[in-house]
Write a structure and sequence with these properties.
globular; two-stranded parallel sheet; 10 helices; 6-stranded mixed beta sheet; signal; Conidiation-specific expression protein; binds 2-acetamido-2-deoxy-beta-D-glucopyranose; alpha/beta; single chain; 330 residues
Length: 330
C-alpha cells in the first residue's frame, strides 16, 4: 500500500505561507529520502528497550488525545484505545492513544518508540496513532502524532522526536553547505533540522554518518551532532531523568458516562513522582504560544495531506511541485 504514494503527493503538495521559508531550491540533496537510513541494518534494526503494556479501561482518555481526535476528526473518542507503555529504562510510562482502526498495532508503536534512545525519548510526551493510507506524522514540539502505517519507518519516529529536540536558529549553518538531507528537508528550516536529526540518530546508534560522505552538508551534520549526540547515543544503564507532566483525563462522552466508565480522574499508571525524574510542564510562555500554534497547524495540515486524509489547501504556494524524492510528512 505504500507502493506509490508519490503521484498523489505531487498533486497534494502545497506549502502554506508560514512554512514557505526554507532552504533554497537550488541546494542539492544528499539522500533520496531518509528511508535509506532505516534498512538494511539501519535504524529499523535497533534493539528496542524492553517494555510492558497496560491498557486503560474503556471510558476515559487524556484531554490531549480527546481534543486532537475530536477537533480534527481523526477518531471517534469512543474508539480511542489508551495504553501506558513502561520501558525498562524509565519508571514513567509513555502514554499512547491509538484509534482502534490504526494500521499500527500497539506492539509496533511500542517497539518503534522503544528504539528511541531514552535520553531523547524522554522529550516526547503522548504518542498518537490514527488510520490513514500513507505513513506521515507531525510534532507539536512536545507530543508526536502518526498517521497510517509507519511501522517500517523508524526514521519517521527519529524525525518527529528531532522536532521536539530542535534548538532552532540554524539557517546560516544550512546555507554554508551546498546540500540538505533530501528533498523533504527543503520544505522548511524546521524540516531540514529534523532530517539531520535522523542522521544524528543514525550516527549515534548505527554507524558513523561520515561513512556516507556528507561533505556537502558538513556544517549541518556537525552542528546537529554536537547538539543531539549526547541524547541519541545509547549507553548501558541509562535511565530517563525528565518527563512531560501528564494531562488530565476526560470522559469519552455521554455513553461512557452513562455506563459508569468515567471515574473522576484517572492518572497515568506508574508512580506520580519519582526521585531523580523531573516533571516538566509541556507549555510555552504566552507570547510564544500563538505563533507556535500557527506553525503546528501548518505542520498538521502538511501531515494530513501526506497521509491522504485531507485534500491540499487551494491557493497555497506550490513550492514542491515536481520535486523528486519529496515526502510530505511533517
Ligand atoms: C563527497 O561528495 C562530494 C559531493 O558532495 C564530492 O565532490 C566528493 O568527491 C566526495 N568525496 C568522496 C571521498 O567520495
Amino acid at each position: 500500500m505504500l507502493q506509490n504514494p508519490f503521484f498523489m503527493l505531487l498533486l497534494a503538495a502545497a506549502v502554506p505561507a508560514v512554512l514557505a521559508d526554507g532552504p533554497p531550491e537550488s541546494m542539492g540533496t544528499k539522500f533520496d529520502g531518509l528511508d535509506v537510513l532505516d534498512s538494511p541494518n539501519g535504524l529499523q534494526n535497533l534493539t528496542p528497550s524492553p517494555y510492558t503494556i497496560s491498557q486503560w479501561p474503556w471510558g476515559t482518555v487524556p484531554q490531549l488525545c480527546y481534543d486532537e481526535s475530536v477537533n480534527n476528526n481523526y477518531c471517534n473518542p469512543y474508539d480511542l484505545e489508551v495504553y501506558d507503555v513502561t520501558y525498562s529504562d524509565c519508571p514513567i510510562p509513555t502514554t499512547v492513544c491509538r484509534c482502534n482502526n490504526s494500521p499500527m498495532t500497539i506492539d509496533t508503536i511500542a517497539s518503534r518508540v522503544g528504539q528511541l534512545p531514552v535520553k531523547a525519548r524522554q522529550w516526547v510526551g503522548y504518542i498518537s496513532s490514527y488510520a490513514a493510507d500513507y505513513c506521515s506524522a507531525y510534532s507539536d514540539s512536545f507530543h508526536n502524532y502518526f498517521f497510517g502505517d509507519c511501522g517500517a519507518h523508524a526514521s519517521v519516529f527519529f524525525h518527529e522526536l528531532s522536532h521536539n529536540l530542535d534548538r532552532h536558529n540554524w539557517k546560516d549553518t544550512v546555507t554554508k553547505g551546498t546540500c540538505v538531507a533530501d528533498g523533504y528537508a527543503k520544505s522548511s528550516w524546521l524540516e531540514a533540522y529534523a532530517q539531520v536529526g535522523v542522521m544524528a540518530g543514525y550516527h549515534a546508534n548505527v554507524q558513523s554518518i561520515y561513512t556516507k560522505n556528507v561533505s556537502c552538508m558538513n556544517d549541518q551534520v556537525k552542528k546537529v551532532i554536537s547538539q543531539l549526540d549526547g541524547l541519541f547515543r545509547k549507553k548501558a544503564g541509562q535511565m530517563c531523568d525528565r518527563y512531560w507532566i501528564k494531562d488530565t483525563t476526560v470522559c469519552m462522552g455521554p455513553d461512557a458516562q452513562a455506563s459508569g466508565a468515567c471515574p473522576e480522574f484517572r492518572a497515568a499508571a506508574g508512580p506520580a513522582e519519582v526521585e531523580g525524574v523531573g516533571a516538566v510542564k509541556a507549555e510555552l510562555p504566552d507570547e510564544k504560544q500563538k505563533k507556535h500554534d500557527a506553525v503546528v497547524a501548518e505542520l498538521r495540515h502538511h501531515a494530513e495531506v501526506a497521509a491522504g486524509i485531507t485534500p491540499e489547501k487551494p491557493a497555497a504556494a506550490r513550492k514542491h511541485k515536481g520535486k523528486k524524492g519529496s515526502k510530505f510528512r511533517a
